[in-house]
Amino acid sequence: MTFVCYRFGIFAFSIVAALADIPTRTTSNVPYDDSNFVSKSIDTPPWAQPKQKASSLKCRCYPGDNCWPSASVWDAFNETIGGRLIATTPLAAPCHDSTFGLYDAIECANLKAAWLTPDLHVKSPSSIMAPYFANNSCNPFLPEASPCTVGAYVSYSVNVSQPMDIARTLWFATYFNIRVVVKNTGHDYNGKSTGAGAISLWTHNLKKIKMIDYKSVNYTGKAIKVGAGVQVEEAYAAASAQGLTVVGGECPTVGYAGGYTQGGGHSALSSKHGLAADQVLEWEVVDGRGRLLQANPSVNPDLYWGALRGRRRELWRCHLYDK
């Protein structure tokens, strides 16, 4: 849920969590498998510039810089991800006269009434719940004549639907040296789900949930497999329908498989069942090189124990599941 480290970034495509306690861990030294390197299947992209090499600059390319991709390049990139690129229009734009449109009193009143509720921002690819990090870029409560700009919001978002969307976005961002952030619901009050001049991996619509009978050396029993966009309330409902319990937090709109679980996952049930991170049996992840990987105590245990379950958080970044 923060800036992507292109070398070590981990983007989890699914999480499988136990619906019971997890026994003692076991590990094995299983190396990464390059056979499923997603980017191997991508031909030279239509947005590549014949006379331009991939950027080696340390500072990120920013809108207005000479290195910033042209509109036609963004359009070409959009074609490679199935038209899922979204240019940011600030959520509060109807409250101001700006390049995004004219003031709309009715729409602005509706926005103001809902502004402090999570659902409004959860459904937006760019809006966040931390006003400090929005930096008044487009504040609905400021006067109509106040500026409304993209400002501290991301410049573009990718509505992630499959692992290749991540792989292609990382390739594009690396090539042009563009900042990358990840947004699921926007609950991150440290501002990590936004960033000026960034392209965002928006995982909110990865909503698939599957109840499975899981079997491994460490655990055999019921488990829930959820996509990165699944929220706590949705995981609760799916488990409850089967007469089962999920270890989750109090806030129903928080993303279950994102920063909540990877950061530990405190719960009212923790005194009995442990943290949410303790329940994780397996991850499906896309790493910063575009590889679709499995991570459990036997396969890629360094990711399972180190990068994805509350330790060494500088190594990870996002997650998904859509099968």
Automatic annotation (TrEMBL):
GO MF entries: FAD binding; oxidoreductase activity
Pfam entry (one): FAD_binding_4
Domain annotation FAD-binding PCMH-type: ranges: 146-323
Keyword RNA-binding set for record: no
The keyword Disulfide bond belongs to this UniProt entry's keyword annotation: no
Highest taxon of the lineage: Eukaryota
Cofactor: FAD
Keyword annotations of the record: FAD, Flavoprotein, Oxidoreductase, Signal
Signal peptide segment: 1-20
Recorded family membership: Belongs to the oxygen-dependent FAD-linked oxidoreductase family.
Protein name per the record: FAD-binding PCMH-type domain-containing protein
Organism: Xylaria hypoxylon
Organism lineage: Eukaryota, Fungi, Dikarya, Ascomycota, Pezizomycotina
